[in-house]
Write a structure and sequence with these properties.
Structural class: alpha+beta
CATH topology of the largest domain: Rna Polymerase Sigma Factor, Chain: A
CATH superfamily of the largest domain: RNA polymerase sigma factor, region 2, helix turn helix motif
Largest sheet: 5 strands, antiparallel
Shape: globular
Number of strands: 9
Strand order of the largest sheet: 1-2-9-4-7
Distance between the termini: 42 Å
CATH architecture of the largest domain: Orthogonal Bundle
Radius of gyration: 18 Å
CATH class of the largest domain: Mainly Alpha
Number of domains: 2
Length: about 200
């Protein structure tokens, strides 16, 4: 059922994308509306400001519209939007850093507070590699990660709750690779099956 819904979503994206490429601004709005909220969360985590994140999302969507013709179907439209938003946030970072430090992790090491779900597979002075395994419906406690690269070994569906009470739905297919900035969260599995992730935490 879930795979069917994802297939329908990607098919709908293709229809809207084709219309947007033909210059249909309303199709572009429909295409991007479904991603606006998660882009805002992504930008907020990078910039540490609600209003700066709003501005970054608007600039990202404007850039996406202006450069829509350069989109290549080697990646999903969602992944392409995320790359644009990340670049926008990085370009804004130095301008804001003098006045507002980026948010830093404030909670505990997941390996210490939740060893059931987090296990160290490898560690040296540059990286720490974690194996993350959740059973269906399992929940962790609030903890922190440094900047990381996550590799999803299975499909995953979950929810992140952040220290300010905001939540974010997480969906990933097996084989997905994601860059994640330093963050603090409480993860909860919403998958009906166990899922597994390898996280490469960067130390420098």
């Amino acid at each position: 059922m879930r795979a069917s819904r994802l297939a329908e979503r990607f098919a709908a994206d293709e229809v809207e994308l084709a219309a947007a490429l033909d210059g249909d601004a309303e199709a572009f709005r429909r295409l991007t509306d479904k991603y606006t909220r998660e882009l805002h969360v992504h930008c907020y985590r990078m910039l540490g400001s609600f209003h700066d994140a709003e501005d970054a999302v608007q600039e990202s969507l404007l850039r996406a519209w202006r450069h829509l013709g350069t989109f290549a179907s080697r990646s999903t439209f969602r992944a392409w939007l995320y790359r644009i938003a990340t670049n926008v946030c990085l370009s804004r970072g130095p301008r804001h850093s003098a006045n507002r430090p980026l948010p830093q992790p404030i909670a505990d090491d997941p390996v210490k507070v939740d060893p059931k779900h987090y296990k160290v597979e490898f560690e040296n002075d540059r990286v720490r590699v974690l194996r993350i395994k959740y059973g269906a419906g399992e929940k962790s406690v609030m903890h922190s990660h440094p900047e990381s690269i996550a590799v999803f070994l299975t499909d995953a569906h979950g929810k992140f709750t952040y220290p300010d009470g905001k939540t974010e739905d997480i969906n990933a297919k097996a084989g997905t690779v994601q860059h994640m900035d330093a963050h603090t969260h409480l993860p909860e599995s919403r998958s009906k099956k166990p899922f597994e992730v390898i996280a490469v935490e960067l130390k420098r």
